[in-house]
Each structure stands twice: as C-alpha cells, then as structure tokens.
Amino acid sequence: MKKVRGFSLIELVVVAVISGVLMTGGIAAYRSIGNRQQVKQAGISFQTNLRLFQGKALAGEKPIDCTAANKLSYYKVEYVLENKYSVQPICAGKTPTAVSYDLDEGISFNLPWTEIKFYNQESHIEGGQTIQLVKTGTIAPYYEVTIDNSGVISGEMH
Question: pTM here?
Fold first, then answer.
C-alpha cells in the first residue's frame, strides 16, 4: 500500500478560495467601521460647536466687533454648502462678519437645513430641527444632531 503525504491540489485550491472570501469580507467590514467612525467624529464635532455657541449666547459673550453700546442679540448658525456652515453674532447697531466652518474631509450634510438662532442669555432656540451628517456620496451610516427649541442639543449615530 502506498502512503500518501501532503494535500492534493484540489484541497489547496479550496482552502485558498475560502481564505480569499473570508479576507475580502474582513476588509469590507473594516472599511465600514472606518467610515462609521469618521461620520461619528464629524457629528460630535458639529454638535460640540453648536453647544459652544449656545454657551456663548447664554453667557452674553460677544465678539470684540460688538462694542459695549452694541448689545448682542443672538448667534446665528446657518447652512452654507453641503460641507460648510457659518456662525455669525448679531449685535444691535453693528453685525460682525460670519465665520465659516468646514466639516471634516469626506463628510457632508445629508440635506440643507434652516438657520438656528441662539438668543442672548435665553435658553430657548429658534430653528429647532434634526440635521444629518453622512460620508459624502452616501446616505448611511449617518450621525443625527437634534436641536430642540427648548435648548437641548443631542446626537446619535445611526
């Protein structure tokens, strides 16, 4: 009787094909996790900026351009482009220039949204809504920032 050692060519090919399929699936899953984390980080940054300007409005903090005689009315945050938004303090008498902010590269707003107003030393907000951030050119996964008219700003990954 002849003793067979090793594996046949068919067995090796089957193992190689199965390994390739598993590796391809692993790489796809890894890319998906990377995109998800990128969207989540951009959403958290946007949410943090909204809270920052809400805090400035609540504290009555106004920029240098607004003199002592020019009372701060509110901070206005508005959609500019799919990957850009601006913030502008509105003061009585003189209104400083708006400052634009870019979202992280490859991230955009899913849809245009209406302006948000954080009023001076008031907790309520005008322009409450839900804003979605996505990887540019996709619709999922997305990070949803909810701005409630009562002043609550929250975010959640979907």
Answer: 0.81
Helix (H, G, I), strand (E, B) or coil at 116: strand
Contacts of 142 (CB under 8 A, 6+ apart): 39, 110, 132, 133, 134, 157, 158
CA dihedral angle for residue 22, residue 27, residue 33, residue 39, rounded to 10 degrees? -150
pLDDT tens-digit readout, 21-40: 999 888 877 777 888 999 99
DSSP bridge pairs for 109: 133
Tokens of 124: 């309520």
Q: How many domains does the chain have?
A: 1
148 lies in some domain? yes
7 inside domain: no
Question: CATH code at 46?
Answer: 3.55.40.10
Sheet holding 107-109, edge to edge: 107-109, 129-135, 142-147, 153-157
Containing structural domain, residue 20: 12-157
DSSP state of 19: H
